[in-house]
Fold this sequence. Notes:
By secondary structure, this protein is an alpha/beta fold. It has one domain (13-340): Alpha/Beta hydrolase fold, catalytic domain (Rossmann fold, 3-Layer(aba) Sandwich), CATH 3.40.50. The protein has 14 helices and ten strands. Strands 1, 2, 3, 4, 5, 6, 7, 8, 9 and 10 form a ten-stranded mixed beta sheet that branches. Strand 2 (49-53) and strand 3 form a beta hairpin.
Amino acid sequence: MANSAGSGAEPPHRRRLLGLSGAALAASPFARTAAAAPTTASAGFGPLKAANAGDLSISYAEAGPAAGPPVILLHGWPYDIHTYVDVAPRLAAAGYRVIIPYLRGYGPTRFLSADSPRNGQQACVAADIVALMDALSIPRAVIGGCDWGARTACIIAALWPERCKALVSVSGYLIGSQAAGKTPLPPAAELQWWYQFYFATERGRAGYDRNRRDFARLIWKLASPQWDFDDATFDRSAAAFDNPDHVDIVIHNYRWRLGLAEGEARFDAFEQRLAAAPQITVSTVTLEGDANGAPHPDPTAYRTRFTGPYAHRAATGGVGHNLPQEAPGLFAEAVIQAGQA
């Protein structure tokens, strides 16, 4: 059984290392905006901070020395910044400046304008993080993620490699496209995506809105069947789903993937590049748990997408989809390894 959140014990794991080198890609920066004042505290972290970045006031946790090498860690759905609650102190102790933002539609992060589209397409979520880096005057960082966060980290590494010193991605290469989302899968694989089809309906939108916490708890159990999390651990993260834009962002994200919702024209050029499955040239460590119950590719399927220094680590001992929270020591080690390559 995997360790509960907050436990100091780590499940046993094994490591596989691979290596190659490659070239860089061109990119486009985002304008910087001013940082805002600290906001409320979050259990497990110190007082949260906020910065106006792009369309958002992004709320984030920060740990470690301000002058340390920056690391940005990105959560997924249906999770929140507490995915990294036991990773952050490990990296802070190693001298890193750790920044963990609430994505759009989560926690205290808010849109600056009521008129902004509640867009969840993959390129706009990545643009949010680049805008946050600009707002915090961070030219380059190690970027790590899980689930939506892994996809976002991969996109930044692919489109803005000069902003990404190194990448840590759970489940590897997760960049997608609407064309790929329209391609039928074998029935067993389609079954794993049941919630995506549920969200394609108005009944699904209403059902998720009405049952956010029960829905998230079910996903946690299906995605990490051996993770013995308790009610307090779940409730701490579930509070992030009370964000007023949460349902709109989640529903749009999954509908956009299937081509059932439009994105914003300003991201069209980025999405065209992403649809070509660009290679990632920065130093990368990919991770996978042996008990991941969520849809995920086999590591051999994405190995060729990474052309820089590369390593893959496989976690054993019942580690599921939310790997950074279930095996925080392994994830922290991967961040350090990727950043030193």
